[in-house]
From TrEMBL:
One of its GO terms (molecular function) is nucleotidyltransferase activity. InterPro entries: ADP-Glc_PPase, GlmU/GlgC-like_hexapep, NTP_transferase_dom, Nucleotide-diphossugar_trans, Trimer_LpxA-like_sf. It comes from Cryptosporangium minutisporangium. The keyword Transferase applies. Residues 273-359 form the Glucose-1-phosphate adenylyltransferase/Bifunctional protein GlmU-like C-terminal hexapeptide domain. It comes from the Bacteria. Belongs to the bacterial/plant glucose-1-phosphate adenylyltransferase family. Keywords: Glycogen biosynthesis, Nucleotidyltransferase, Transferase. Residues 4-243 form the Nucleotidyl transferase domain. This is Glucose-1-phosphate adenylyltransferase family protein.
Amino acid sequence: MELLTDHRAKPAVPFGGSYRLIDMPLSNAHHAGIGDVWVIEQFHPASLADHLANGRPWDLDRTHGGLLTLHPHLGTEREGWHQGTADALWRQAPLIREFDPDHLVVVSADAVYALDYATVVDAHAEGGGDVTMVTTRRPIEEAGRYGVVEVGSGNRITDYAYKPEKPSTDVIASEVFVFRPSALLDLLGKLAADETEEGLRDLGHEVLPRLVADGGARDYRLDGYWRDVGTVPAYLESHLELLEDEPAMRMDDPAWPILTRGGRHAPARLIRGAEVADSLLAPGCEVAGQVERSVLSPGVVVEPGASVTGSVLLHDVVIRRGARVHGAVVDTGAEIGVGATLGAPPGDRDAENESADTVVLVGAGARVADGASVAVGARVPNESA
């Protein structure tokens, strides 16, 4: 995610105008009736803590149970920084054992999807395995970025390869897992006792391959929309997918709305002369120019004569008069000066640029000077860089 995570945790990255990435798993847990949710924090915790608001938007601000935030700590043999998901779970293992859950649902917060975790838990309990992996399909050329699985009869996972160079299938683990707690924690303890210099790291390095080899892994296929947004191009593409005539996922689906902390801005304002098409405008936006196929977060200003196409503008971005923004992700508080140009319309890009990373990324608080031209695929550092 490059500049987008220089100053915030990845789960705190804004998405869809009014949301944050962590809103997806928290909303899924709420709708599934899961009332005990633990968030493991490490990097830039303040960027996430304010948004979580003690779990209130997801009905997790309870006297008993609800939201619990876990941090790296000192004072025990499990102290220190988390070196990955598996390592973080091992460090929190005594607390998990004390809580004694029937099932342990482990999810990441860097993907966009809607899923009833309760149905996965039910399938896991019925299957009787040590782990149930929620899987989905991605193009084979992308599969090597993930854990690739092979599935046999009875939904049993027969092979798991973590980020292989040559994927054997297009079926990948979506980073949503349901574990039998004792199986996971016992295995983490054994692996920690034999720990190498690299440590436990992520679940895909040792834990999942061991559980698959022991025959205890089951598959739960997610056929609906799922999009990993761990790269800048994927982040922009997933926003544009929200703007399709019939999007595969709607953040405001009445049957499964994504919940978030809100209520801080007035309605969006369109000034006479504004032209907006196929776009999402969050509360607090003020648009006097042209906006097409773009997503604007709260507080964005687009001045008269400015145009924004195929872009994502995060909180409080200002596009000055006459500026042109094409195929860009502009981070919080950045300002694009009078008459400046970011990127180029798709028809104006040459073949070399079309095959490269074509997303312009402007860091938080950066200022692009009046009349400046920023090339396709360029990076403008954060203000403090």
